[in-house]
Structures are given as structure tokens and as C-alpha cells.
User: What shape does this take?
Amino acid sequence: MRNNGNDLNSEIRKDPVIGRWVIVGHDKGYVAEKKESIQRKANPSCPFCPGNESSTPPEILSVEKDGKWQIRVIPNKYPALSSEGEIKREGVGLFDKMSGIGAHEVIIETPDHLASVTSLTVEQFTEVLKVFRSRFNELKKDERFRHVLLFKNEGHSAGASIEHSHSQIIATPIIPKRVQEELDGAEFYYSYKKRCVFCDMLELDNRFFKERVVIENDNMCVISPFAARFPFEMWVLPKKHFSTWENSDDEMLRSQAEILLSILRALDDVLGNPPYNIILHSSPINGNCDNYYHWHFEIIPKMKRIAGFEWGTGFYINPVPPEEAAEVLKRRLNR
Amino acid sequence: MRNNGNDLNSEIRKDPVIGRWVIVGHDKGYVAEKKESIQRKANPSCPFCPGNESSTPPEILSVEKDGKWQIRVIPNKYPALSSEGEIKREGVGLFDKMSGIGAHEVIIETPDHLASVTSLTVEQFTEVLKVFRSRFNELKKDERFRHVLLFKNEGHSAGASIEHSHSQIIATPIIPKRVQEELDGAEFYYSYKKRCVFCDMLELDNRFFKERVVIENDNMCVISPFAARFPFEMWVLPKKHFSTWENSDDEMLRSQAEILLSILRALDDVLGNPPYNIILHSSPINGNCDNYYHWHFEIIPKMKRIAGFEWGTGFYINPVPPEEAAEVLKRRLNR
Assistant: This one.
């Protein structure tokens, strides 16, 4: 918090989907809070670099060009969940548990150790998205799983333990809480409006709050959400209502690659290569929520430390109003 | 994750109150993940040190001894919320907001810049808790507020921006989401069991899962919770059912001081002065939940970075099984 008590002008905003309240303040100090500026250094022992393929588990698939791999999918060497075995459920009184069954894969997005995804071309990034889609659809077939999570940690303070650009995919036998909350919120809204809450949000922002619409193309739109939890948090949504990302056709994937590259490059420029997370929010497997759920990516730059208050309460303080974040990014994008 | 794929033996556990699932793995690597070991250094310009009182806003109260303050309460110089004004509510379509009204105070727990709370005596810590209670009860009287949050950030990576030992108290016009989830979970359980879920959890752990009971005294108990989200997460609960912490009498506060000092000292020893957060979970103001809510402290050492996966999903991976964390701490406590 860098607000001067005298000009404090914060407000408390409610997320329209989940109902979470966020304190949105006015603060120009966000850049000073940034801890990390990503700069990659060559590392001969990087397990994700060409030549070191033997230091990873055997690959699941790869995309090749001129006899060299461009994208490579491997099982996570240190998986959070084990892919072998049956799901056993067990409980004693209050305490429910199940076996830690799931899939945990790593997608290496480029052979170039020094490259970030923003240095890929639209064509290359589209190929990466196609690989994501292929793995997503493959994991969906496993009847043990209820949900597939696709996410990217960029930079150490965003959780990346290996610098070489990669994403991860985790299939789980349960629906994660945050996803369930979104589903519940969207279903509740649909139950009395018979409309998708995400569609309504896009409509409202596009008609009356253009200041939160950062960039759009034929199929996709990036908004700086009304109740953003984090400085420069961005949501990337399809303009048309789709519940399942993994059904995106090639044209949609290209639109996504284009808009993701634009917004990530703008964030890099404006915030100086910040660490960030990208998380795909798509319908659970057989989620039965086509009417009311709307898939999207969430991009969360790691600009501030998260304190106990936020952990313990689910109540966030975002010093940067989303309209200001959008304005800064739009200036950059329209340059 | 430091698991070797070969001996992976994780399980997925469900928090009995909130229903959140956590992947609990087996991992001895938690110490290597720790980023920060707290070591305080003298700082002549520290605004919380005696002699520099004029660099803080005027004090709200202080506890003195021999003409010198021992504990001091001040308004936060950079408050998240403003204490002056009416609460105005406003909405456009989906988007609800209210004015950022609230209270934000800082409790300086010792005049000694180099001291952590663990260097206080039981008597001194009891005095600190009495000051918390006094401010809590004072803020409760303000009819604009629905909830009072009391929390401590120890160490930079736990969110502390000033090294000198202090806690914070924030009164808000809304009930934070996490608190509401606990209330909802506890109410749901009560609706079909007519019992408190926290009481049942304590009972079950004490009768059948002693391995999760870390330490107890006459009034209080520390458990390593079944579905701990974080390595060495600890919950500190009263053995008897009480919904509101701020009604604790002096004897209860002394019991709390005693047990908090014991567990915090054990964590310091075992984890090497880790950064941590302590968050008080007490009933909202006029929460009407005396039957089913059970106040408690949550202690969360910051042992690992939080990655996108966890942010985006509310689905946590805890490499250290709570039973192992308890065992390590109990060995230290019984030494």
C-alpha cells in the first residue's frame, strides 16, 4: 500500500461471477513492488534443452521440423499425482480422502532456452496451442478424471522451477474448488437470467465500460476485469459463448495465439518482463454446463507479495484499479 | 515437488469444513524450498521504534511501564480502507461496489526492534492479546462494520513491509469470502448433525488421530490439520466451543499466549525462523453463528512459492503430510 492517507479513494468491488469482494485502491507504486524481471541465461544442463532429452522421462509427443523437435510433451518428472492405479475413496468420520491419481505433463514450448513465448510467431504459438488441445482431449478420455487444468508459470516468483519456457497440464479426479465456485456462480446467474454471466459482463464492458476492454480481434477479447484481484490481472475470453476451450477449431486457436501474444508483449513492455501465471478455465469433463459456463484464460502478473490477510480471508487488496491498468496497456498497444 | 516418481505416494484429502481438496504428498525437501530466514537488523529510522513516534499517525492507545510504552496501537499510515464516511452502495448491471470504508490499525507488539514475538514472555504476550481484544471489541461497536480481521505477517515474504514486530487489524463492511465459506460449511454440517464441525474434528483427532495433535494445554489445542494446504500449517483452537474470540477472558488469553509461544518457538527451531502468517478466524459481527462456528488461529509458515496452479484453482499441493509435520514438531516440543 502506497496510498497517501489524504487522497485515499479506494472502493470495494464484487466479482460478478464468484461474489468475491476486492478492495480496489489507487496507487502508482506498483512498479516498485515488482520483485523479478525475467532474464534467461544459457544453461548447458537444462533438462528441457535439445541434447538433454535423456534427462527427462520418455516423451509423450513432439512436433518436429527439419528433423528437430519444436515442441515436446513429457510426463512431469516429479508429478503431483500418479498416473497409474485405480481411484480408491476412503473416509473416517469427517475425513475424506482418495488416492492421488492423476496425470501431470509438461509441454516444452520451444527448443530455444533463451526464448519466452512472446518471442514466438503467431504460427509457432498456434502450434503450441494445438499441442495443448491435443493433450487436453487425450486426457479427457480417461474415465478416472473429472477435470483438466492447463497453466503456465513464467518466472521463479510465479512458481517456475525450470527457466526454459514450458506449460503444465494436470488432470484430476475432482473438480478444483475455484472452478466449482465459478460453475456455481454462473449457474446461479443463469437460473434467473437465462443468460451467461460472462457474456453479460462482456456485453456491459463493451457497451458502457470500454475503458476495461484492452484489446480484441475477430474471435477474442481481453478485459481488465471489474473486480481484478491483482494489478494488471487480465481475462482473455472468446466473444461468442463456448464452455469448452478444447473444442476450439484451428481458426479460434490462431485468434487466441494472436491476442495472447499481443497482451503478453504489452505486459512485458509496460511491467518490464514480469513473472506471471496463465491459467485456462474450461468446463470440467462432462461438466454439463454448456448453457452457462464460458471458458477463458486468466493472466496474473506477480506484481506484489501476497500477505496473510489475503491468504486467510480470500479478500484481496488490489492497489491498481483495473481501468488504469487497461489504460496503460491500451496506450502501449495503440502506439 | 521433490518426489521421486517411483515412490510417489500422494493422496487427495478434503477439508471437512470448506470442502477444499488438497494433494498431500510425501517430500523431505521442504527445508530446501524455504526462501527466507528471519534475522532482524537495527534500523535507526524504523517508524515503530521508540524515539520515532512522530513518524507514525497519532497513537490510538498504548500500554506503558515505567513511563515507557511496551505496546502501541496506531492507525495504518497507508490504510487499505478509509475510516471516515458513510458506506455508499452502487451498482451498474452486474457490477456492484461500495465505498472503501473500514478501519486499518497496526499493533506494535514490543519496543525492541530486534525482538520477535517468540522472545516475549507469556505475561508480555498475554498483554499483547489483551490489546488485540480491546481494539477488536472497540471496532465491533462501529455499526458500519460486519467483520474484524486480526492478522500478523512475520517476514518479508509473508508480506511484512516493516521488520519491527507488529500485527494488523482491519474492520470491513463485508464478510470476507473465506470466512463466509467456513460459516457456510460449518452451518451445513450443523444442519444435519446438530454438532460443531470443529468440535467433531478435535474429538476425532484426539481419540483416533493423536498423530495430528501437536500440543495442548488446559484450554487450547494445536492440530496439524488433516487437509493442510501448506507445509507445517497449524490450527490453534479452544478445546471448548466458542464462536467469538474477542469474548476470551484473561485466563483464556493466557492459555493462548502460552500455546502460541510454544508452537511458534517450535516452528522457529524446526524450520529456522521462517516467515509466517497468523490469521484469527472469529465470528463476524452479529454473525448469529454461536451454535456452529468455532474460532481459531491459523498459522501458515511460508515454505514454498505458490504457483499458478494453486492461485487459479484453489487446489493446493502440500508436499509435507500434516502427520509428518506434527511428528517433527512434537519431537522438538517433548525434548
